[in-house]
């Protein structure tokens, strides 16, 4: 209650005080006072608690308004000394804008890096600056910002050329920059310094304030209230679900409120969850703390001042924008930077933005302040748990990457030493030798270590730009920092040693993760240290000396119990130490040794070793010491993955190899080999005089032999690499580009590779560049991608000579791939030999049989393979080697035979021909045996059939007799209607009406095979049911009104489809045919299997328990005119209506006898009591019910109920919607109406149409008859039928299908011989006229600009008749239609508008009656209109349907126009559907992907754009994987995408971040997005950053999947192929 009273009373209590307040007077008072800070603080203490945080429900608009009036107004008056609007305008007029952009990026916004001009990869441009710069024409990289970075446009040090965009380009008058304060008066400068210092101190104090119930001195209010907030704070530990559950228990809120709280906490860093007195809030805190979450009970005045402090910082930034550099100079000279302490996310972000803004205006003051407080700031960050983007330490990226600033800080503030020592001080976990120890790290220490690693990244920023000129002071400070860096490396040298595992393969251990993570962080730093050293000879020499001393110190300190020994062999001896790598521990972390190896190679590369040998400590070098630890590591690390990984190998494996090469070059070769034998533990094998005897004795132990062979192989491989691998700058006379080129060649020797694969296989430098683009064209050819797949680089043939099987970066798996390459070459040669009898130029066997070119006399590949065939250690590859040798022999034999035997000589058979003949004879013998077996089986089956016929002779004879009359009657009927006989010319084919084409007995017969039991069966009405597997889904693909509110499924009447097709039911099929009982057994087995699973991972793709539907293919004569037929049908419907009313009222009391007397008698031969005989077998009826119920359930989203009268309506609607969907797809793809559908769609439409014609037989006849009466009343108005829709609210094709398919229920009661064919034709005529009227009422353009085409007498007749009909409509509507002067324009609208309807009707009657289509409809051409009209038995001038039956149509026309909803529908132009309806397409996407990633969800708020996702159907921007857009759907919380699929796509959605397909709540998959780079590859998350452009072909493929209703099918295939998709909670997306 207290909270409510405070909210209500606060405005009235403060109203008079606010009205009497004067900002001018307050500012004048401050000017006259002696203590400005005290005055301002008193003012804030008085008014801030009265404006902010007055209750549980905040009102930001009122708070901002009062803040501007009472708080910011006095500050602006004081600052300007006059009316703020005038003073700020003057400042803006004198503004000296900064040439630095300084735009602060938000999370997810695009940032651009020019790969040609950027000084390093941290130099970025915002989108506006990039589009206005020269860099958009260069090679650039596009990334999504992680937040807090700034645009470097205007920074001349950030760009090699083009530092300015068009907006920030300095003008000629700006050549001499003046003092930014020159345009300001001394008084204003003083006021600015005063007010900025006070407000900035106030904001910093409050944002870092950690006391809950006290305020800083001077801010205590005179009257202290007793209201508190229970404030929940964000952390990086607890999940959304944990926070939501805790809040529901603690503050008794709903789940929706708890989700809102949790979302705000995650976005802003904190949220008040309770407001009231102290005890009330403390009670909630006690519950929340037990979970445990971070929560505080804070006094309302503290919260109020913290809210205003954010506003104050924003005000400062806003004021600075008026004057550019002038006021920013005052701001930059004030406070030291603050880390934010325990402040939450929103306060940290505000401080961060302020620091970034002030730094970008003046580089000088802030960096020194940051460096002076560097250790404290980093300590605060390490102790905290918030992301680095919300820490002031992130600003080091902006400071240390400025080259001049970084070098100034190195020389003046000893920056390198400060960073390294701060980093080392945080890693205090050491062993006895002082080395880092990570093995026993607790989870908390591991978390802290991950944060500590970010510190060393600052050193990378400092070293990013190598100096071109050195000063003595820079050399001194750099070498001092280098020495400190060596101290860090000494703590890593030899840490965490491990023992080699014998007999098993070890790639990675969990406890190695921390050490390798540190190694990866240091990789680029070590490389950059060497680059700095290489740029100055003096620095290189001194660094080499210091590094050698550090390595000597490490070896002297870490003896590990090593004992000296002397090795002797063949007259040679060498002193070394005893060390067994297989038993002793070996460390893979040797950064000091590797740094020395790198510096040693640089001495050779820069020729310093040759020009200044006297300055180098060459005498101190001990080659055995240099090679000892790298050699141990190379022996150990054949098993360790990370050691050879591309991220680590440059500063690990490669440097170890260089050190061995350097040591070997300074040693006696024999001594080097003896030490290698000792370390591989092979010395005892090769040193003995009776070597063969000992080896033979040991060969009894196969394990020992295998182990020795493995060690020998590894040793020889290492020797080959030491001697042969010289493609390294400083080792061989090569450049860096040569090394990259050779790397690419060996990658492409394995297989053609995509651009991204090559980039991953090459090491990146600190700027994330591999150098591949410079050399790739010289060694490879690029094959562009097609619609699917990606572009591939293929090795140029002339570069194959660079291949070496022992390339140092080849793994064993890569080396084994060489065998596969040899095999592929042999297979290709075989194919060439078999395909052509002429001499073939491709002779791969000759190439692998030749000796290698270098070194001289080296064996050929074939000789090496023959040698390796007997090698015991290559057991895995023996089969492959044998096959290669066998294939080579076969190819050689074939070539010899073809070369020696003359073409005409066929008498002499070579050995190869004999073998071939034997194989052919064997195949013939087997084929003959199979034929005899088949004949025997068929004979047995024939005997069984004869036996069955003899046994059931009477039954068989009866069936033959029954068959003969039906056959003869069919023949008689065909003779009486010669125009309908099969011999009728194709040009007169008709699909509807009495003259329609009819199939003969042989043509009607259809035999199909069950895919489950493989039994053949003829399709008959009384036979076993044959079914198709089908999938039913709700669809909005053709919707013209996605905003139509969802209907109540229990009350919705789906009889009439609206022309907007807001949603429909689509049926698709895979085309597989089965017996119904075969399917039932299989389906029951699948169900049982699903039920046995403890946890159901997914539903079967083909047999979904809820949505697996199956179709049944069913089989299926005169002449009254339209008026007679309408009269008869009208009498029948009236009789049915009367009977239905009588049935309903029979149970009611007091039936009126007079009313019964007035009931009209039924027509003759129309018996209401006639018993209907269902012609279908029981299995067919069962399947009809199954499919009908499934369509009803899916289409209306209700529980199954086969008795519901809406079941047949949904079946007819699904038939009509599916046909319309396929017709539109064929039209848009410019395919012919017939002959272009795949078999499965053809079978689906045929079965679906015939099912629709038969489904009434398993429904209630009364309900179907009632549906027919209501449907007919829409065309033939009947006052006895209520709620008849206006014809503008009815889709005419749906109406046609429903009328035709429901009419048999009425016709079955008639015994007069009326033809169903005539009824179908009359329905078509009526609905066609109604659709013509519909088009004339809705689709005539307001202003027609088309030029009329000249036509003959027939055209004039068409125009005259359509004009007369339009005039009649205007007359009936009383001038409600606009006047049109031209009949030609009207006829053009009618023809264009009705064409989709005619095409769909042709498909419908084709599949319903089985009439083949004329040839004109099997091709796309100009004669389609006439062919359609002829096929549908319609006149080509459709207006004849109206004028020839004018006496019948005129009353109908009047009835349609007089409908109460007609005028209302015509006047609601936005919702009026015009014909032809345009086909729906996915939204248009921009060509450049960066135009998309700059968008954000409007609900996300704050600095984060979250995970923006674009609906490709309607263009809505949503959040994926975020709670800010989560909503409730059917009682369950779902993500924004899932909820949107039901509103926009009836449960199916397509979204673009990466393309996401969703179907319902539980199914989804990811699909390749349509945006590709220049290499034909996608780039999820912009990891590579190549510019992405829209691929129209791929986007059309996605659109085709959507329009074909194949999204759900695609999801099923994806989940079938990738089981991980099943475990994703799709409903949360």
Automatic annotation (TrEMBL):
Bias (Basic and acidic residues): 910-927
Biological-process GO terms, alphabetical: protein ubiquitination; ubiquitin-dependent protein catabolic process via the N-end rule pathway
GO molecular function: ubiquitin protein ligase activity; zinc ion binding
CDD domains referenced in this protein's UniProt entry, alphabetically: UBR-box_UBR2 (cd19679)
Annotated region described as Disordered, given as residue ranges: 895-927, 1141-1160
Cellular component GO terms held in the UniProt record: cytoplasm; ubiquitin ligase complex
TM region(s), chain numbering: none
E.C. designation(s): 2.3.2.27
Keywords: Metal-binding, Transferase, Ubl conjugation pathway, Zinc, Zinc-finger
Zinc fingers (UBR-type) by residue: 99-170
Domain (UBR-type): residue spans on this chain: 99-170
Pathway annotation from the record: Protein modification; protein ubiquitination
Catalysis performed (reactions): S-ubiquitinyl-[E2 ubiquitin-conjugating enzyme]-L-cysteine + [acceptor protein]-L-lysine = [E2 ubiquitin-conjugating enzyme]-L-cysteine + N(6)-ubiquitinyl-[acceptor protein]-L-lysine
PANTHER family, per the entry: E3 UBIQUITIN-PROTEIN LIGASE UBR2, UBIQUITIN LIGASE E3 ALPHA-RELATED
Similarity comment: Belongs to the E3 ubiquitin-protein ligase UBR1-like family.
Function: Ubiquitin ligase protein which is a component of the N-end rule pathway. Recognizes and binds to proteins bearing specific N-terminal residues that are destabilizing according to the N-end rule, leading to their ubiquitination and subsequent degradation.
Protein name per Swiss-Prot or TrEMBL: E3 ubiquitin-protein ligase
Organism: Danionella cerebrum
Source taxonomy: Eukaryota, Metazoa, Chordata, Craniata, Vertebrata
